[in-house]
Design brief:
Blueprint (H helix, E strand, L loop, with lengths): L3 E6 L6 H14 L6 E6 L5 H8 L5 E4 L16 H6 L4 E4 L2 H6 L4 H14 L2 E6 L3 H5 L3 H16 L8 E4 L13 H16 L3 H6 L1 E5 L7 H5 L6 E4 L6 H14 L1
Parallel strand pairs: 1-2, 1-8, 2-3, 3-4, 4-5, 5-6, 6-7, 7-8
Helix pairs in contact: 1-2, 1-11, 5-7, 7-8
The chain binds 2-phosphoglycolic acid (PGA).
Length: about 250
């Protein structure tokens, strides 16, 4: 039985004061379900402070990206071992904003995924198509290419220690959510791609949906057979909104 994971991607938002209030709100309202895991991913400069605030709670900490290199002369980059050292258990890799705005290729994302795993972090591999790709009927081909790069380099078993997030680019920050059926179609496709290589891993891996998830659409999405939670952007910045999504997951478990 897969647990739900509700993950907040804070992107480039926040301040020490705002984060403290947000984390306080999450900790105060933490919905009591053994079947819902919570994760927050603040910007790098705030990881240590948020780690300290989360200490002793069940809410996990993650970063939003990671270097594919282990250490050395890579100015401005952050190694996976440093994230572990700072209290992170997870890291997002291949978010569509990283792919589109910073030119991260699927091979580079696969290298980041491998670096995260090697350091003991759980990578959350983000995949998803643009509107043009969807309209051209290329959704599955795009997902296959993005997922394939990681399957080829790390192998299917690596997903026993990883999470996948399906985030259609056209649904991110737009208020346009995929319908539960649209999302489920892609989630089913992802799981069947995995199952072709290893059934047990396919059944165990959490596949999150991301893209304009809110308290009022979360239950519909999370109720689908292959949707195991959400990667939440905008609605993760206010504790009541984030908690409403976690509660939607708890109500289904
Ligand atoms: P959104 O972002 O919830 O604001 O659409 C999701 C994401 O980019 O992870």
């Amino acid at each position: 039985m897969r647990k739900y994971l509700v993950a907040g991607n804070w992107k480039m938002n926040g301040s020490n004061a705002a984060n403290a209030g947000l984390v306080d709100g999450i900790l105060a309202a933490q919905p009591g379900s053994d079947n819902v895991e919570l994760l927050v991913c603040p910007p790098f400069p705030y990881l240590a402070a948020v780690a300290a605030q989360l200490a002793g709670s069940t809410v996990a900490l993650g970063a939003q990206t990671v270097s594919e290199h282990e250490k050395g002369a890579f100015t401005g980059e952050t190694a996976a071992s440093m994230l572990v050292d700072t209290g992170c258990r997870y890291v997002l890799v291949g978010h569509s904003e990283r792919r589109a705005l910073y030119g991260e290729s699927s091979d580079q994302v696969a290298a980041k995924f491998a670096a995260a795993l090697a350091a003991g972090l759980k990578p959350v591999l983000c995949v998803g198509e643009t509107l043009e790709e969807r309209e051209a009927g290329q959704t599955e081909a795009v997902i296959d290419e993005q997922l394939g790069a990681v399957l080829e380099s790390s192998g299917v078993e690596a997903f026993q220690r990883a999470v996948i997030a399906y985030e259609p680019v056209w649904a991110i920050g737009t208020g346009k959510t995929a319908t539960p059926e649209q999302a489920q179609d892609v989630h089913r496709h992802i799981r069947s791609r995995m199952a072709a290589r290893d059934e047990a891993t396919a059944n165990a891996v959490q596949i999150l949906y991301g893209g304009s998830v809110k308290g009022d659409n979360a239950a519909g999405l999370f109720g689908m057979a292959d949707i195991d939670g959400g990667l939440i952007g905008g609605a993760s910045l206010k504790a009541p909104d984030f908690i409403a999504i976690a509660e939607a997951a708890a109500s289904l478990s």
